């Protein structure tokens, strides 16, 4: 796998970033630093919880009472911190390095998977191997596969779901569709969310989707690789993780 860590490594190639709206500026700078041309095509929009008062009360109780706290994304950290100070004596776990970095900025010690940065990797951490009778707070947004919830409940955990934000479909306009229609097959489409992929498939006009799926998808996991192929991408590469550096290394 060729590393894209030096200036010019992307050689003018268009890199389609599908991260949520308003979250991809730093990622775009990394693409430019490597000689690529970023195209922001958000597959998600992130919104605060519809009931902020309830979310705040649940979060405060989890921070106070639950011995295990699981943060599912950097967005979960950002929206949680907007509701209450992230001070706790609990063991704090993060699904990936980006989430862990966000938590450390709030002064928290964090455990994070090193090999497989997803729900399966998180569940393999020693802190979650025996959760019977223990209080576990899952802090994030509703939706997703539900794997964490099911495995924790199957293991006998006392699960508390704290939804501090929600995911919505992006607002794409004609400018987005027109930019996608101009893509070459050499473009790379970076995928780190199955929901974002589904939103783009359902939101883009058919001719724009056809052009997007003719490009090369770079998927952050085996699950997303399969989802990309099912959605119509014929050329898919697998990245080591959803971290920007790993996605760009797979380009």
What descriptive keywords fit this protein?
five-stranded parallel beta sheet; 11 strands; 39% helix; 251 residues; four-stranded parallel beta sheet; alpha/beta
Give a brief rundown of this model.
The chain has eleven helices and eleven strands.
Ordered list of secondary-structure elements with their pairings:
Layout: E1 14-17, H1 25-33, E2 37-40, E3 45-48, H2 52-65, E4 68-71, H3 74-83, E5 91-94, H4 97-104, H5 119-123, E6 135-140, H6 147-154, E7 158-163, E8 165-168, H7 174-181, E9 188-191, H8 194-203, H9 206-214, E10 216-219, H10 222-231, E11 235-238, H11 244-249
Parallel strand pairs: 1-2, 1-9, 4-5, 4-6, 6-7, 9-10, 10-11
Antiparallel strand pairs: 3-8
Helix pairs in contact: 3-4, 7-9, 8-10
Describe this protein's structure.
It is a single chain. Residues 1-6 have low confidence and may be disordered. The chain has 251 residues and is of the alpha/beta class. The strands form three sheets. It has a five-stranded parallel β-sheet, sandwiched between helices. It is built from eleven helices and eleven strands. The longest helix is centred in the first third of the chain and has 14 residues, at 52-65.
């Amino acid at each position: 796998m060729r590393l894209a860590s030096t200036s010019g490594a992307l050689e003018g190639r268009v890199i389609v970033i599908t991260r949520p709206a308003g979250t991809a500026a730093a990622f775009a700078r990394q693409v430019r630093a490597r000689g690529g041309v970023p195209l922001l095509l958000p597959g998600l929009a992130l919104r605060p919880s519809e009931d902020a008062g309830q979310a705040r009360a649940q979060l405060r109780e989890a921070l106070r009472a639950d011995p295990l706290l699981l943060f599912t994304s950097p967005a979960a950290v950002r929206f949680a911190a907007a509701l209450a100070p992230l001070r706790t004596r609990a063991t704090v776990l993060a699904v990936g390095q980006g989430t862990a970095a966000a938590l450390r900025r709030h002064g928290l010690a964090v455990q994070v998977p090193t090999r497989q940065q997803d729900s399966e990797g998180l569940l393999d951490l020693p802190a979650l191997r025996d959760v019977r009778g223990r209080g576990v707070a899952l802090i994030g947004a509703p939706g997703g596969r539900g794997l964490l919830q099911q495995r924790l409940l199957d293991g006998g955990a006392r699960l508390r779901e704290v939804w501090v934000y929600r995911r919505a479909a992006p607002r794409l306009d004609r400018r987005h569709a027109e930019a996608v229609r101009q893509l070459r097959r050499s473009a790379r489409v970076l995928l780190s969310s199955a929901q974002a992929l589904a939103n783009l498939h359902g939101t883009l006009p058919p001719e724009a989707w056809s052009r997007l799926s003719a490009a090369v998808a770079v998927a952050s996991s085996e699950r997303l690789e399969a989802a990309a192929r099912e959605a119509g991408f014929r050329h898919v590469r697998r990245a080591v993780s959803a971290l920007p550096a790993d996605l760009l290394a797979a380009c």
